[in-house]
Amino acid sequence: MEQARSRSSPPLVSRTTEIDEPAFAAAFDALSSPRTTWSAPDDALVLGGGAAATLTASGTDRFAAIREATTELFEAGDVHAGTEAARPRVFGGFAFHEGACDGDPWKPFSEARFVLPRVQLTVADDGGAWLTVNAVGDDADVSAVEDRLAREVDRFAALDAADPADPPTDRAARSPRPGIRESRRTTSRAAWRESVAAAVDRIRDGDLRKVVLAQALEADLAADFPRAATLERLAEKYPDCHRYWFEPAGGESAFFGATPERLVSLRGRTVETDALAGTTGRGETPAEDEWLAQELLDDEKNVHEHELVAETVRDQLEPFAASVSAGERRVRRLATVQHLHTPITAELDADRHVLDLVEALHPTPAVGGLPPDRALETIRETEPFDRGWYAAPVGWIDAAGNGAFAVAIRSAVASRRRATLFAGVGIVSDSDPDREWDEVQLKYRPILDELEADASDSPDR
Ligand SMILES: C=C(O[C@@H]1C=C(C(=O)O)C=C[C@H]1O)C(=O)O
Fold first, then answer.
1. What is the Å distance from ligand 1's center to 203 Cα?
2. What pLDDT score does 8 carry?
3. Which of 144, 345, 446, 449 gets the most CB atoms within 10 Å of its CB?
4. Which residues are catalytically annotated?
């Protein structure tokens, strides 16, 4: 019994060494499932393979359960990380709400699932690559971990090296997009008009202030989904976004995307977050882009929709904070859309775990609505599909309880020959169903562009 108890807080052994940077696709393919990739603007890229530890939870207390499990996991460690970015971190995410993973394609996903990679490649944003081997519990033997690291170093040395003369776009271009054989929408235009009209009625009746309604699009692919090439193309096209890839156990499918929306990052007592809501398209010319951006900044409906998010995020941080400050509202321009964006920072009044903030903030009215309970009820009643991890928090946690989480939008679940894409829009009192429909199609673009054989042929453009 004593032994069983000591095993429940197992030691963690982690060893890292610097290596020559391998090519992304070669490293991705060399790692075993479950694979994780995580990359944030101006931060290191992490590729994880296998699981030294897997933490899962479900239900409304899933945030608290993961917080406790990470605290226990990181309690005792023998860690030589070499570089801060290679320190042990668990990577994963949460379901949008409890029960959101009950249907397809979410069944292999858990309502909360975090992995400490068994093997991790860390590539610093200013160059330099590190290989890490982690072990927990019975495997956590220092000399066994060091031997394993030496073997992994040999294995990675044999991979194609990263080649700055062969940029990712050129490499990815040699792996064509799969093409879509057939696609199905969860929501017809008629059903959408009805749902938006019903939501607008509830808002005008004073029952709701805002609700974010989403759709899903299921696409049968004409060829195998090119996993690494897709991630490389997203990295090239969306360098300012958080890019992520999470495989559930089994590795037959993965949830991935490139999101412009940070939920929260915590380092020490410093919190950074974004209010991101209010959307317009991109222009054909720089002048048209500017015109659209200005129109967005001046548009009452979009500003109202945005301010509900910014105010709520500030209010939700208040109870934890010694100070909260919001930057100036501005336009965030992405490859496919433009958004209203307000950066928000806070200093906490006490030490906190990042999951305390994740739990307090999720779902923000950028992906849920206001009041939160009524919005959630409307979402559940209206949407004919499961959100799973779509629009939910994904990110990492370290031993100090620091972490960074993004809102998992501009995302899809992909298996070998199928992808399910998700996109939503904020509905307020003066929302027009057809304009909101068009906005949903725009928000599919980041992922759809990587699936269609020739993106310019798309009827939805
Ligand atoms: C819900 C999504 O996006 C969110 C909704 C936005 C809006 O309604 O303007 C803008 C950015 C995101 O906060 C999505 O992309 O699926």
1. 18
2. 46
3. 446
4. 210, 261
pLDDT tens profile 212-235: 999 999 999 999 999 999 999 999
Task: Give pLDDT, residue 10.
Answer: 57
Same domain, 102 and 10: yes
Q: Is 231 helix (H, G, I), strand (E, B) or coil?
A: helix
21 contacts 161 by C-beta, under 8 angstroms? yes
What is the C-alpha to C-alpha distance for residues 430 and 303, in angstroms, rounded to an integer? 12
State how far the alpha carbon of 220 is from the alpha carbons of 179, 446, 459, in Å.
9, 17, 16
Are both 293 and 439 inside the same structural domain? Answer: yes
Beta strands in 260-410, from DSSP E residues, in sequence order: 262-267, 270-281, 321-326, 330-333, 337-348, 369-370, 393-398, 403-407
Say what the pLDDT of residue 118 is: 98
Q: Could you give phi then psi for residue 89, rounded to 5 degrees?
A: -140, 145
Ligand 1 pocket: which of 196, 210, 259, 261 to mutate (most atoms <8 Å of CB)?
Answer: 261
Quote the strand ranges of 247-391, DSSP E: 254-259, 262-267, 270-281, 321-326, 330-333, 337-348, 369-370
- Specify whether the CB–CB gap between 440 and 427 falls below 8 A: no
How far is ligand 1, taken at its centre, from the CA of residue 107, in Å? 25
Residues 155 and 30 in one domain: yes
**Residue 133's beta-bridge partner residues?**
15, 119
In terms of Cβ atoms closer than 10 Å to its own Cβ (0-12, 13-18, 19+), residue 183 is middle
Mean pLDDT of 307-317: 96
Number of structural domains found in the chain = 2
Task: Determine the structural domain holding residue 21 and report its residue range.
Answer: 2-159+166-172
Is 309 close to ligand 1, i.e. is its CB under 6 Å away?
no
Distance, CA 410 to ligand 1 centroid (Å)? 9
Considering the entire predicted model, what is its pTM?
0.94
- The pLDDT value recorded for residue 175 is 82
d(CA 351, CA 152): 37
Instruction: Give pLDDT tens digits for 270-303.
Output: 999 999 999 999 999 999 999 999 999 999 999 9
Instruction: Phi first, then psi: give them for residue 7, nearest 5 degrees.
Output: -70, -25
Residues 56 and 195 in one domain: no
What confidence tier does 4 reach under pLDDT thresholds 50, 70, 90? Answer: very low
Tell me the CATH number at 416: 3.60.120.10
Query: Which mutation among 262, 263, 279, 432 tests ligand 1's pocket best, with the greatest number of atoms within 8 A of CB?
Result: 279
Q: Are residues 273 and 385 in the same domain?
A: yes
**Nearest Cα to 442, choosing from 457, 461, 415?**
461
Instruction: Give the pLDDT mean for 398-405.
Output: 97
Residues of the chain with pLDDT > 70: what percent? 95
Cβ of residue 443 lying under 6 Å from some atom of ligand 1: yes
